[in-house]
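Quick one: structure for this chain?
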Amino acid sequence: MFVLENFIIALAKVIDIGLTVFMWIIIFRAVISWVNADPYNKIVIFLYRVTEPVLRPVRRVLPAQNIGIDFSPIVVILVILFLRFFLVQTMMQIARSL
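Got it. Here's what it folds into:
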């Protein structure tokens, strides 16, 4: 059973790292949106391509589109934090109980 326990712990840690990296990518995207970044810069293109599939559905659901402030990064970051605190911790507890 220790193999399954170690596998679940490793998977939980990989998910945690992936969620953390994606959260920072969203933060960088939000910061870049505040400045006049070159839209042809490879880093800016990468940030938009990686984050837009996640942010676009959230923008469609949020009702406040006429105020000029995009709250979708905040919502996505809150979802990521929820997943980190709930999903990852639950996986760790399940692994420890095996």
